[in-house]
Amino acid sequence: MSTISIDRLSKSYGKCLAVDDVTIEIPAGSVFGLLGPNGAGKTTTFKCLLGLARATSGEVRFGGQPLTPPLFESIAYVPERSVLYEWMNGAEHLEMQRRTFARYDVARAKELMELFSLDPRKRVRAMSKGMRSALAVVMAFAIHPETLVLDEPTSGLDPVNQRAVLNLIIEAAAQGATVVLSSHQIGQVERAADHIAVLQDGKVILAGAVDDLKSDRKIVEGIFPSETIALDGLRRDSRIERLDQSGRILRLTITADGGGLAETLSQMGAQSVRIVDLNLEDIFLNAVSPNMQTADVVEAR
Ligand code: ATP
Questions:
Q1: Residue nearest to atom 24 of ligand 1 (CA)
Q2: What is the Å distance from ligand 1's center to 71 Cα?
Q3: Which of 4, 7, 105, 300 is the most buried (most CB within 10 A)?
Q4: b vs e for 79-104, b when ≥16 Cβ sit within 10 Å of the residue's Cβ?
Q5: What is the structure's pLDDT at 146?
Q6: Percent with pLDDT over 70 in the chain
Q7: Among 42, 150, 198, which residue has the most ligand 1 atoms within 8 Å of its CB, making it the best to mutate?
Q8: Distances (CA, A) of 211 to 82, 193, 217, 224, 277
Q9: How far is the CA of 42 from the centre of ligand 1 (A)?
Q10: How far apart are CA 24 and CA 47, in angstroms?
Q11: pLDDT at position 300, please?
């Protein structure tokens, strides 16, 4: 069980700076969600983390040590794009895993194949996208890894199998594994992750423990009779961190307890007002589009 430290990591592909001076500390035994819009640099960060891409600068350390071959044995990687062999079947992939990893557990692999209803005799070429994802997940979890790096592991899976993957992640972390995952399914990350970082244009724009990021903030949501809402007073209110108007719905992200602002919206004519906790999707959207509300508000007025 080791902390993973990514220290001032940068990676350029020609003129494209895919990862730009990223520093992230992934606590041992945590489930760490790496979020970000398309092209933000998540996959590149994973590749540098695992030595599959050479960093332009910066360092990665596992428990204070650089990544060396003995460590590979304890790391499982589910890449974003399938690296399965089309002509091989599930059983042959598992056999490959068995020969590569001393920690491979035959009984566990069988159990996982059954969990995802995978037929070991079926060739990859005849598998659906979801079956391929599931097989990659089985291969990863069958070696009882200490570190799991999962790049969109639930992509293509149906809701039942997505939930099964989430449960495996949570279970692995409970047993001491460190899990790093990326997913565009923010609700799933929210269920599993205790820490997150948000990347945008290769940079970390937000990082921290999910509970800390959620605390002290609320959303006050009001539904108005028309789209014309007088927002001037609200825009000057220092308690309001963000203001989104979508038609008749006004959402205020606030740093106070919300009671006073709920009252204000009612006085402004809102037909219904509710105060809700921030979820991870709100946090993500606030981070990646902090100015969106300004444009919306200007348009709405
Ligand atoms: P997505 O959510 O779409 O999977 P991502 O956050 O994983 O995106 P990356 O795949 O890391 O993003 O890509 C980051 C940037 O680096 C993008 O601009 C991408 O075009 C570029 N990039 C990634 N791999 C290469 C490569 N092999 N050669 C050139 N550019 C690359």
A1: 44
A2: 26
A3: 4
A4: beebebeeeebbebbbeebeeebeeb
A5: 94
A6: 95
A7: 42
A8: 33, 10, 11, 31, 11
A9: 8
A10: 15
A11: 34
Distance CA 148, CA 77 (A): 6
Q: Is 258 left (phi over 0), alpha (psi -120 to 50) or beta?
A: left
Which residue has its alpha carbon closest to ligand 1 atom 3? 38
Give the Å distance between the CA of 175 and the centre of ligand 1. Answer: 32
CA of 201 to the centre of ligand 1 (A): 10
* Residues in the ligand 1 pocket, defined by CB under 6 Å: 13, 16, 18, 36, 38-44, 80
Evaluate the CA torsion angle 20, 23, 28, 31 in order and state its sign.
negative
Summarize pLDDT for 238-263 with one digit per residue, the tens.
888 889 899 999 999 888 677 789 99
Q: What is the mean pLDDT of the chain?
A: 91
Whether residue 301 has pLDDT greater than 60 = no
- For the entire predicted model, the pTM comes to 0.87
Q: Return d(Cα 145, Cα 76) in angstroms, integer.
A: 6
In which band, very low, low, confident or very high, does the pLDDT at 81 lie, cut at 50, 70 and 90? confident
Per-residue pLDDT band for 214 (boundaries 50, 70, 90) equals: confident
Closest among 297, 288, 294 to 38, alpha carbons compared: 288
Query: How many CA atoms does the CB half-sphere of 186 hold within 13 Å?
Result: 15
Residues composing the chain: 301
In this prediction, residue 290 has a pLDDT band, given cuts at 50, 70 and 90, of low
Q: Is the dihedral of CA 272, 274, 279, 284 positive or negative?
A: positive
Tokens of 9: 């990591």
How remote is the CA of residue 19 from the centroid of ligand 1, in Å?
9
What are the Cα distances from residue 136, in Å, to 113, 117, 239?
A: 11, 14, 47
What order do you get walking across the sheet with 272-277 strand by strand?
240-246, 249-254, 218-223, 272-277
